[in-house]
Amino acid sequence: MTVVADTNIFVISLTSKSPYHKIFTALRDGKFSLAVSNEILLEYHEIISQKYSPRTAHEFLNLLSELPNIEFTTVYYNWNLIPADVDDNKFVDCAIAAAADYLVSEDKHFNILRQTDFPKVNLLNIDEFMGLL
C-alpha cells in the first residue's frame, strides 16, 4: 500500500505518547510505502521544526532518506484540486503522480477530494488509516 501523508499526520504520530504513534512505527517497520516529493519534504522539515525542534525534523528526514519504503516522486503536473488552500495541492499532486492508494490528512480542505471524480484520489482521515494498519 502506497500513501501520501499530509504533514499533520506526522505531527500527530511522531511522539510515542500519541495514540497514533502506530503510524510512525508502521512506516519505520515497512508496513506501508510513503510517496513524497521535494516540496513535501521541505514542508515536513519546516512544520516538524516548529512543532518539535529542528533536530527532530532533521532526524525524521534522515530516517526517510534511509528507509527502503519511501518513494521519491517527481510531480510533472499541478492539478490544483484544492482551491481553498493551494499549498495543500502538493500532497494531491504527489498522490496522483505516485498512483498512491491513499492520501491521509486531518485537514478539512482535503474533503473536496471526496466529491472529485477525476482524477480520483482516495482520501482517508487518520482514524480510517489506523484501521488499515
Outline the structure in words.
The protein is of the alpha/beta class and 133 residues long. It has one domain: 5'-nuclease (Rossmann fold, 3-Layer(aba) Sandwich), CATH 3.40.50. The protein has 6 helices and 5 strands; from the N terminus they run βααβααβαββα. The chain has helices at residues 7-13, 21-28, 38-51, 54-66, 89-97, 126-132, and strands at 2-5, 33-36, 70-72, 102-104, 123-124. A 5-stranded parallel β-sheet has the order 3-2-1-4-5, with helices on both faces. α1 crosses α2 and α3 packs antiparallel against α4.
Kindly report the CATH topology: Rossmann fold
Count of DSSP H/I helices: 6
The total strand number stands at 5
Strand order in the largest sheet: 3-2-1-4-5
Q: How many separate domains make up the residues?
A: 1
> Biggest sheet: strands, sense, closure?
5 strands, parallel
